Amino acid sequence: MKHLFYVLAMLILLTGVNSAQTKTKLTAQEAAARFEEFVIANGYTDLPPTDDKSKLVEEAVNGGTDEATLRMRRNTLERKPYRVSQGNRFSKDGWTAVFLYKNSCKDCRKLTARVVYMDAAGENPRIEHQDFIFKRKGKS
Q: Across residues 55-74, what is the average pLDDT?
């Protein structure tokens, strides 16, 4: 009986290790798609947010996922990320995406956007609460 316990414990342990190792890192294209799904599902685009309230992510400062908060988010960001890059302030393997505000001037020297982070496997997305303002290359 004691041996059976040890065998079962080892199987459970190995299964846990195996599932942790099967989390694969995303490609840049897969990361872009996950970011796009995130901003759509969380109500930042012109499309309606997800009906599954458990998938909504609160912002750090403007928390909440109630109807009033979702109305404030509505149609503020472009659906597609302006830029996706590997690495972020939380992890060198994670991903970062920049989403332009809908009213961002595409021909202007400075662009205003929001930044979204997620881990290397495309999980745990979070949106930065502060606007991200950056200069476009080649614009004076």
A: 88
CA distance linking residue 140 with residue 125, whole number of Å = 34
Cα angle, residue 75 at apex, residues 105 and 130 outer, rounded to 5°: 70
**Digit-coded pLDDT (tens) for 105-137:** 767 788 899 999 999 999 999 999 889 888 877
Note whether 26 and 122 are within 8 A (CB).
yes
DSSP result, 97-138: EEEEBTT--TTSSEEEEEEEEE-TTS-S-EE-SS-EEEEPTT
Find where tokens 């942790």 sit: 20
- Which pLDDT value is given to residue 60? 82
The residue count of the chain comes to: 140
